[in-house]
Amino acid sequence: MSKQMPIATPREVRAAARRDLGADRKAIAGVVLVNALASAAGLVGPWLLGRIIDTIQAGSGDVLDTVDRLALGALLFTVVQTVLGWWALKLGYRYGERTAARVRERFLKRTLGLPPRAADHLPAGDLIARGSTDASLVAMTLRSAVPEVLVAIVHALFLVVAVLVLDLWLGLCGLVCLVGVGAAVRWYLRRARPAYLAVASTGAEMADVIAGTAKGARTVELLGLEHRRTEATEGVIAEARTARLWALWLRTVLFPWAEISLALPVVGVLLVGGALSMNDLVSLGIVVTATVYLRQLVGPLDTLMLWIEQLQGAAASYARVEGLADIPEESGSATQSGSSGDRIQVSDVHYSYTGARDVLHGIELAVEPGERLAVVGTSGAGKSTLARLLAGLDRPDTGSVTIGGVPVADLPPDQLREHVVLITQDHHVFHDTVRDNLLIAKPDATDDELYAALDAVGATWSKELPDGLDTEVGQDFTLDDAGAQQLSLARVVLADPHTLILDEATALLDPRTARRTEQSLAAVLRGRTVIAIAHRLQTAHDADRIAVMEAGELVELGTHDELVSADRVYGRLWRTWRTDGPGGSA
User: Fold this and answer.
1) Which domains does the chain have, with CATH numbers?
2) In what order do the strands lie in the sheet with 553-558?
3) Is pTM beyond 0.85 here?
4) Exposure string over 554-563, b if 16+ CB within 10 A, otherwise e
5) What's 328's DSSP letter?
6) Using an 8 Å Cβ cutoff, are 270 and 111 in contact?
7) What is the pLDDT of residues 491-522, one digit of tens each?
C-alpha cells in the first residue's frame, strides 16, 4: 500500500457534499424560505427611506405624519428582518450540527472498517490529522458555512434584484462595478486548491514525523539518531511553513483586491445617480435607496468572500476525509465461511516490505493444535515478520499461511479473532468504561463473564473499581502497565481464540511488572496453541518445539534437546545465553 493516503477528487468531494447537504432537504428548504422572508423584509426599510426623502423633497400635504408613518414602517420591518434572520441562522446551525455529525460518524465508520492489515500500514500522523484537524474543519464549515452562505446568497440576490427593479440603469451600473470582485475570486480559486492541499499534506507529514520520533524516542536515544531526527523534523517544519506562507500570500492578494472592488458599486451609483438626478431622470429618493441597497450588498458579499477563502481549506480537508473511501480493498475473499480445523500450515512463504528484497525466504512450517512453538533468532532474522503473517496482519507475497486450510489473511476480522490473536507489548486501553473496553472482544458477554475473564488473568484491581464495570478508565480509575496488559489479556480470554502469538509481550515492562504480566499470561495460554517469539531462551527451553530463524530463513526445527545436540545455530545461542547468564536474550 502506498505511503501516501488517497485524496478524493473534486468530483468526489462535490458528490459527497451533495449527499451531506441533501440528507436533510427540508431543513435547507426551511432555511432558504425563512431567509428569503427576512431578505424581503430587509428591502422595505431602504425603500421607505427613499419615500421619506421624496416626501420631504416634495413638501406637500401633511409631511410630518407621512414621515412618521414611513419611519414606523421602516422600524417594524427592520425588527421583522432581525427576527427572521435569527430564526434562519438557528435552523441553519441545527442542520449544520446534524451534517457535521454525519461526516464524523462516516469517517469513524470507515476507519474502524479498515482491515487491521490495511490500517497498520497507514501513516499514523496522516490518519490522525484527517480524523482530527481535517474532520473538525469540515464539521465546522458545514455547521457554520451552510447557514451563513445561504443567508448571504439569498440576501445578495434580493438586493441585486431590488436595485434592478428600482432603476435598471442604476442596477446595471452597480453590477458592472462588481466585475472586479469576480476577477479577484477567479484568480484566487485557480490557485487555492493545490495550495490548501499542500498545507494539509505537509501538516500531516509533520505530525507523522513528530509522532514517529516520540514513539521511537528510546531507540533514537540508544542509537544516537537525535541529529538525524532533528534534521527530519526541521525539514518537514520548513515544508509546512512554506506551504502556509503560500496560502497566506493568496489571501493577502484576495482580500485587499476584494475590499476595493466592493466599494466601487456604491461610488459608481452615487456618481451616475447624481448625474441622472440633476437632469431629473431619476428622483433623489431612488438614488438614495439604490445606494443603501448596494451598501447593504457589501455585507453578504463580504461574508461570501470570507467563506470562499475558508471553503478552500475546508474543501482540501473534505478531500482528505473522503479519501479514506478510496483506499483499495485487498485482494482475497473477505467472506470466507471459516476454517475446518486448527492446524496452522506455512507453505513456501516469501515476503518483502518494499518489493525490492525478501525478508522471508521459502518458510515451511506446520503447527499442530495445542502445541507450544518458540521462534528464536538474532535481531532482524524475521521473527516478528513471521508473527504478523501468522496473525493475518500481512499477506505473503508468494506461498500461503493457512488455518484449517483457509488463508489466515482472508478470514473476516470477527472469524480471525476466534482463531488467532497476536499479543505484543502494545496494549490498547480506551478512555471508556471497563465494561466497554471488554465488550470489544465479545459484545454479548454478561457481567459474570467479564468478571470471570478479569479473574482469569489475575486482575485483582477489578474488585476495587469505584463504580464496578461502569468505572471510567483514565478518569475514575487509573491502570498501571501491568493492569492495562491484564485488561487486554482479559479481552483475549473473552475472544477465546485457539491460537495465541506472543511477540515481546513483556519486553518493555520492568521486572516486577513483567512477572505479574507473565503470571496473567500463563492463565491465558493454558489449553491453547502458543507461538512465542522467544527473546529469552528460557521460553524456548520450555516449548514443545523450537523454530530457529536466520536471515529470513527457517534453518532449524526441533525440540530443545535435539537442537542443542545438533550444535548449530540454536546450540551456539544456548551456550552464549548460559555463559552470559539467564538474563540473556535471543
Assistant:
1) 10-326 (1.20.1560.10), 344-580 (3.40.50.300)
2) 420-424, 499-503, 529-533, 372-376, 545-550, 553-558
3) no
4) bebbeebeeb
5) P
6) no
7) 888 888 888 888 766 554 555 655 666 666 67
